[in-house]
Write a structure and sequence with these properties.
two-stranded antiparallel ribbon; about 200 residues; 5 helices; mainly alpha; Hypothetical Protein Ta1238, Chain: A; single chain
């Protein structure tokens, strides 16, 4: 992985949670510009934030299962890294293109490549599919499916944003790859816990 120290450290002090500045439906982007809260850019990084919360839920389930299923420890490490990367992605999405600085946190090709490594490693253990997988099996697997669907929504929103404003292509590529990873990880989570996955049967 690339040196994460190439990114600036957070420089903020969150002493008060409420400021009343958003009571009229506006919020601030990185750099201080005020913008309406339902703007596409806010929708983009807000959905990434939502995804991060669901990854946190999956991470908790992962941690609860490690004692009985030690292999989940590997997935736990990956999910924690993904949480940090999603915050980096949120940072760049919360910034107008003309306000972005060189050392600002973001996702890059190296993070996308690492996702592919993690995805392929798990996928190599899985049986071939002959139908679609229905969310189920274990709670962790379902939570990872939830992450997958939210990730796809975040990707769609970012694509829509890219039609009207500049969005770094790595941001969209990262979300595309991450949603694939969540699908594989959901299947692998069932495998690691000895649970049977349910395949779609149109004539059930």
């Amino acid at each position: 992985m690339a040196d994460k120290e190439s990114f600036n450290k957070p420089r903020m002090a969150i002493n008060r949670v409420y400021t009343r500045r958003g009571d009229k439906g506006e919020t601030s982007l990185v750099g201080g510009e005020r913008i309406i809260k339902d703007a596409p850019r806010i929708d983009a990084y807000g959905t990434v934030d939502e995804l991060n919360a669901f990854v946190g839920a999956a991470l908790c389930s992962c941690g609860e299962g490690i004692v009985q299923h030690p292999r989940l420890a590997d997935l736990s490490v990956v999910l924690r890294r993904v949480q940090h990367e999603l915050f980096n992605l949120g940072s760049i999405l919360a910034t107008r293109p003309d306000k972005v600085h060189e050392a600002q946190p973001r996702v890059r090709e190296v993070e996308i490549a690492q996702l592919e490594v993690d995805l392929d490693r798990c996928n190599d253990e899985l049986p071939s599919l002959r139908s679609f997988v229905l969310p189920g099996g274990t709670r962790l697997s379902v939570e990872l499916h939830q992450c997958r669907t939210i990730c796809r929504r975040a990707e769609r929103i970012c694509i829509g944003l890219s039609r009207v404003e500049l969005v770094e292509p790595e941001s969209i590529a990262y979300l595309n790859r991450l949603s694939d990873a969540f699908f594989v990880w959901s299947r692998w989570a069932d495998l690691a816990q000895g649970a049977q996955e349910t395949l779609w049967e149109p004539n059930v």
